[in-house]
Amino acid sequence: MKEILVCGGTGCISGDSRLVHDALEQELSRQGLEAEFKLKYTGCHGFCEQGPVILVTPKDNFYCKVAPQDVPNLIHQLKEGKVYDELLYVEPTTNERILTRHDVPFYKKQQRLVLKNCGIIDPENIDDYLSSCGYKSLQKVLKLQPEQVIQEIKTSGLRGRGGGGFPTGTKWDFARKSVADNKYIICNADEGDPGAFMDRSLSEGDPHAVLEGMLIAGYAIGAQEGYIYIRAEYPLAVKRLSIAIEQAKARGYLGKNLLGSKFDFSIKIKQGAGAFVCGEETALMESIQGNRGMPRPRPPYPAVKGLWDRPSNINNVETLANVPVIMEMGSERYAQIGTEKSKGTKIFALTGKVNNTGLAEVPMGITLREVVFDIGGGVSDGKKFKAVQIGGPSGGCLTEEHLDLPIDYDSLLEAGAMMGSGGLVVMDESTCMVELARFFLSFSRHESCGKCTPCREGNTRLLEILQRIVEGNGEMEDLDRLQSLGENIIQSSLCGLGQTAPNPILSTLKYFRQEYELHVKNKVCPAGVCKALLSYKVMEDKCKACGLCKKSCPTEAITGEKKQAHKIDVSKCAQCGVCMEKCPFDAIIRG
Amino acid sequence: MVSITINGNQYSVPADYSILKAAEENGINIPTLCYEEGLTITGSCRMCVVEVKGVRKLLASCATPVTEGMEVQTESERVISARRDILRLLIANHDLRCLTCERNGDCRLQDYCYRYKVEDTPYKGDKKHYPIDTDNHFFIRDYSKCIKCGKCVSICAEVNGAHVYDFMERGFDTKVTSAFDDTLQETTCTACGMCVNVCPVGALVEKSVLWEGRPWEVKKVTTTCSYCGVGCQLKLKVKDDRIIGVTADKSGSNLGHLCAKGQFGWEYVHSQDRLTDPLIKRNGVFEKASWEEALTYVAHRLQGILQERGGQAFAGLSSAKCTNEENYLFQKFMRTVLHTNNVDHCARL
Amino acid sequence: MEDISKLIDKYRGSHGGLIPLLQEAQDQAGYLSRETLEQIAEGMKLSLAKVLGVTTFYSQFHLKPRGKNIIRICMGTACHVRGGASIMAKLEEELGIKTGETTKDLEFTLESVACIGACGLAPVMSINDDIHGKLTPEKIPEILAKYRRQEAV
After folding, report:
1. What is the four-CA torsion angle of C57, C60, C65, C68, rounded to 10 degrees?
2. Nearest C-alpha neighbor of B82 from the set B110, B59, B52, B64
């Protein structure tokens, strides 16, 4: 039977994929084709740029930007055993229509291990998960000793996908060795980096894989209870995880004496209440306990004294979703993927000024060039590549010189960036790096919990300095202040938020110092972004005195009579740029 | 015991010590603002950060346990640079009217700025201003001087149990205060004043000391609280032979903890109505007497009554304001000297 | 009131029940009033300071009623020059509230924001996700009526 897989990820849903699904359902039933085609509403396919997307098996024909009104034609073609050309993906450079998903450049270099079910199975149906080897890894694990499971994870070389990259097996080992009446497994689904959504997609698209990862972790460390801490901003993920938990309970994958073993395990969902810092593990535990999400000093580490002071193991969604994959394929085979110290794959959220935005799972060690140009299809609008910001507000930027750098935890750290959760924002020449740093700092400042002095007070001061610079009031000493205060905040803050918040500044200062200096010394924003540094001028020889600019200027800064070149009064100009947009003769320039 | 190196010297310290404690016991001072013995360690002010060999970031010495072979630098260049910035950041958001601050000369923030030569701050910008709360009877709350060390929150929640304060809002907007900024009368505050005693700066100040004298003019006299039998130790703040306030003394069994009476109830000492000499009633009128005369008179009468009517004629009532030792002696006296078991105690104040 | 006490019963004695309790209480009333928070503190045997500390930490919680429609009036330079203040005055007059407040019927919350980047349309305001530009005080009643009606349907 052929399957029609309609993407039900958050991105495609916002493009009305639900309506597409319903139209398909009606059409199939109207034509009595239910026996021929199985319709599924799946998780995210990753290529959000082209949404709503549909995949049709067995040939994996990939249809993009499908609207409900396309449905009759689509079904008509499918019924005939044909391909509906008009909705196939068009390769922008060659204008060729591409027939199958794996030939679409966005997918070509991907290695979808963790995302293998996303977009394929119906996340609200446990049978779908079971039929794609779901819970097989758990069955395997229950026949092993917990120590053997930990050894497998150690052999696989899996490292935490949430940012720090701590070896997962070692973390489990610590928790295993802590003695207590109760232990906890916590799944960190409090993904909050602007531009990162892999954990959301996994939870929405393959929720049982997350549960299976937790179960295996629970068995390994000797825990009977698990918590999923998830942002309240992810309602669909919450819903699908809740459904998955209920289904798993009903089928005996959660509860007492699982699959005839002596292992008991239950999972609860806790919803966040709007605090980015709760992604930090000790703040997260404070939040579950009903407190302000303020990080605790470590040691004691969660593996010794975590939730309710009991040994706790906390991993993020992507890390846990790797676990069943490792157990299924075997740790040694898994360890062959990636680089020497970073094994397996990593999911990146590709956004910004790039042609193909979306989620891409790639083997560790892939170069930035492959991600941006092959998978991402290059910089959009034919502009020049400037940099990528990797790791969100705690990361840094990488420039042209890093394009051939194999991406892994250690190479990124060395380059002054960090993996973070895997947000990858591509920037072109129209991105101002000072403004970018200011944006991330304003985020970190807003999300600082306020507990420790360097982060609470320091990030405010960094932001103020950057604000001064983008407004044209900076002085050269400000650059030294950014550097030294930034370093001191990193050195002395209590938790990961403060210890990484200045990274976007330090790395842009390192690679784009000249841009900062231009803002300070010459009062110029070369990218043309910082409003206060822009000035608009009418080029007299091009001005046809049509008066459109004068009419559109909100501050009445433009004067000029008929047949007379117009002028902009700089003292009245609010730098909004409307005149430049309105001028039909390109007579207004920004400098 | 573990062996650690601090600033190049080797020390042997108990394995459950923090770096801070290990340093302190060996005469090495590490600056702290949020640390207070007996309260939960929050590690929030970051003043006590130190450099530990092999660790990339600086560590809060209050919260980091010692480990065998640890090599610590408490005043390295990196450490000093971080501490200087922390101080600059704190004074950038602090009401710097130190000239008339009651804590001038007795202020940790001031001391550390002096120690690390922080004369001014380069971080001029947003600054929090809050009106001074003078509504409660005993102390003022001047939150423009608060450095968010959180010691008042901890001592109120963990020692007193009233949990009147907490951190409100978050980030730069964080404020340590009562719920809805209520005046303390509207809260469960018991006016124990311990928050005032732990405040390292001039954010919480007793009203009684306002404009009464600079800290260096005030003598601190250790004494025992006269209110009840617990026998709390405290220090009287004395200026020109008059008490102007009370502060904690950690050497006693009360570990520096006090209640409202011990902390604020000392005004009676200077009351005009207070009895300062024994009085003997003669012909229906009380007349001043010397202590010797008074005690002789009492002893004489007690002996007389005992001989005439026996022990059953006596009843002794003592005070809860006396210490346990005094009450013990009192009942012993009643039983063995006056031969009576009629002893009682007011058991209330 | 009764409902809050039922909610409190649901979470009483539960480990870490405070945050979900606050979430559900807010879902019911749209915000967390002082009265509600006092009831929660009493019911959960927590100090009011603790409850308020938690409430003010998380951006999801609101201590003041929020309207169904959030009006944000732009205070950027361009809007200011083009009479943003008179728009603000008209809105305050029409709604009978000051900036930062919410109408009694919980229909509208009025806020001011820095430039929203639609200077060409100055003066502008946004209601929920819609941008309304080239405003004059005379247009305000009509626009507000549209949102009131929408809510009524």
Report:
1. 160
2. B59
| ipTM at complex level | 0.91
**pLDDT of residue C1 exceeding 60:** no
pTM (2 decimals)? 0.91
A156 and A265: one domain?
yes
Mutation pick from C37, C50, C59, C64 vs chain B, by most beta carbons of B within 10 Å, is: C50
Q: Is the peptide bond before C137 cis (omega within 30 degrees of 0)?
A: no
Please name which of B329, B297, B254 lies closest in space to residue B38, comparing C-alpha atoms.
B254
Quote the CA–CA distance of A362 and C8 in Å, as a whole number: 48
Contact between residue A334 and residue A156 where contact means Cβ atoms under 8 Å apart: yes
Report chain A residues touching chain B, CB-CB < 8 A.
275, 292, 294, 296-297, 299, 445-454, 456-461, 464, 477, 481, 484-485, 488-494, 499
- Mean pLDDT of all residues belonging to chain A: 93
- Domains in chain A: how many in total? 5
Nearest to B9 by CA among B78, B70, B82: B70
Q: What are the tokens at C56? A: 């003010």
Q: What was the pLDDT predicted at B164?
A: 97
pLDDT at C153: 42
Nearest residue of A to residue B172, measured between CA atoms? A456
Question: Which residue reads 């024909």 in tokens?
Answer: A61
Please provide the DSSP assignment of B160-185 as one string.
Answer: I----EEEES-GGG-EEEEGGG--GG
Q: How far, in Å, CA of C70 to CA of B192, rounded?
A: 45
pLDDT of A150 strictly over 80? yes
Mapping DSSP onto H, E and C, the string for chain C reads: CHHHHHHHHHHCCCCCCHHHHHHHHHHHHCCCCHHHHHHHHHHCCCCHHHHHHHHHHCCCCCCCCCCCEEEEEECCHHHHHCCHHHHHHHHHHHHCCCCCCECCCCCEEEEEECCCCCHHHCCCEEECCEEECCCCHHHHHHHHHHHHHHHHC
Count how many residues are written for chain A: 591
List the domain range (segments joined by +) for residue A508: 433-522
In b/e form, how buried is each residue of A541-580, taking b as 16+ CB within 10 angstroms? eebebbebbbebbbbebbebeeeeebebeeeebbbbbbbb
Interface A-B, measured as beta-carbon pairs within 8 A, has a size of: 110
pLDDT of C41 > 90? The answer is: yes
Strands of A299-384 (E only): list them. Answer: 312-316, 345-352, 358-363
C75 & C143 share domain: yes
C29 and C84 within one domain: no
**In this structure, are residues A34 and A344 in contact, taking their beta carbons and an 8 Å threshold?**
no
Shared-domain flag, residues A147 and A171: yes
Q: What is the pLDDT of residue A465?
A: 98
| Contact (CB<8Å) C49/B165 | yes
For residues A69-86, give the mean pLDDT. 93
Residue C63 is assigned to a structural domain of this protein: no
pLDDT at position A122 over 70: yes
Phi first, then psi, for residue A216 (nearest 5°) are -65, -40
Element (H, E) at B233: strand B233-239
Q: What is the mean pLDDT of residues B22-40?
A: 97
From C37, C57, C77, give the residue that closes a domain.
Answer: C57
The yes-or-no verdict on residue B186 having pLDDT over 90 is: yes
Percentage of chain A beyond pLDDT 90 is 79
* 8 Å CB contact of C57 and A555: no
Q: Is residue A24 part of a domain?
A: yes
Report the pLDDT averaged over residues A483-494: 98
